[in-house]
Amino acid sequence: MAYSQSPKKAGIPREVLKWLQSLDLTFFPKNVRRDFSNGYLVAEIFSWYFPADFHMHSYDNGASLPAKQSNWSQIEKQNISLMKEIIDGTIHCKPGAAELLVQEIYTILTNRRIQNIQQVEQGFTDKAYQDQLPMVARSTASVAIKSNLSLSEVIAEPNIITNQRKVLAIIHRHIEQRKEERTQDPKRFNVKPTLGEQAVRLRPLLASEPNLQMNTSQAAC
């Protein structure tokens, strides 16, 4: 059975793709999440516009977390107006983060507005992807944690309490999604109506209605 497209292969607007192709980069990003995570391509894009500020020999095109952190640290020192949340999401390959990052860079460097901007889930979760799947194919709580909390994210922020909060937030979101599914398809989950839902509430009689009923009874006699 074929399901909707995975967030890993989510695309970016065509106009942005054409712009990337015009830059003659070292390599063209085939997997947006993976290829932009280390910041190397981001630095190369900016080097086309600001060659004096971005020296590519100081950037590492590696996939390790230290390489990513080193590259992004140099980029952030250039005072580029990119949201920290988007950068962190891109580093840790969060769904939709890299796509939004590329669109932001496109707008900054070209001063053009994107007509059909790519929509992403707030917080860069896989909720939008899960919503497209049949209920039987959606993630369990453990898979949801694995999908929304990467190993590099835990290593970059080793604080136990912080990571516990992230896990609890994922579980809470998963529980809310399950509640929504039960509401949408109660038969599948064998959800029985509550006593309040079964009770039939009658409309209260108006003050004039009892007299009307008595007159009707007398006329019948």
Question: What topology emerges from the helices and strands here?
Answer:
Elements: H1 14-22, H2 32-36, H3 40-49, H4 65-76, H5 84-91, H6 97-110, H7 127-132, H8 141-148, H9 151-156, H10 160-184, H11 195-198, H12 209-220
Helix pairs in contact: 5-6, 8-10
Quick overview of this protein structure:
The chain has 221 residues and is an all-alpha fold. The protein is built from twelve helices and no strands. It is 54% helix and 0% strand.
Give an overview of the whole structure.
- By secondary structure, this protein is mainly alpha-helical.
- The protein has helices spanning 14-22, 32-36, 40-49, 65-76, 84-91, 97-110, 127-132, 141-148, 151-156, 160-184, 195-198, 209-220.
- The radius of gyration is 27 Å and the shape is elongated.
- Mean pLDDT is 78; it is low at 1-9.
